[in-house]
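Re-run with default settings, no changes from the original entry. Doing this only to confirm the output is reproducible before filing.
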Amino acid sequence: MDCNVNNIQEITNIKNVETEDVDIKVVNTNQLEINECDELQNEVNKMIERNRIYLNVKNDKTFSKNKDNNTIKPIRRTYNKFKNTLKNKNLKQMTQAGKELEKKMLEEISERRKKNKIKKEKKKAKKLEGELKVGNMTVIKDISKIRKCDKKTKNKIYKLSSEVINKILKKN
């Protein structure tokens, strides 16, 4: 047991010596750190002063700009709101007028198309007065329509009705 107690005492003595060394080192490093901190703090203070001066100058410029703008802005805002409402009203009126014009144009176009269809149907009816269609063949009843049909369509086959043949024979 004596050995153990002696060993323990030696270990504590060694620890004490180590802590003293560490304390000395800490004190030395603290002094170094304090010196470095002082230098750093001085530099930081200088930078802060520079920034203060720069910011003050910059703030003075922006403040003067803002001060000028503050007197004008409320008037502009109210005017712009009024102007925007006028623009919106004008746009609404223009769109409504555009829609009305579009409807009128569509009505006119549909009327024109209807008239054109009616005209085409009448023309077809006039052409077909003297003709009857049977498959590929068209039977012609009027002699006057033969020449017109021949000029317009060359590939169609025409067959004369017996009445037309009799009229032709009588004329000759």
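DSSP finds three helices and three strands in the chain. The radius of gyration is 56 Å.
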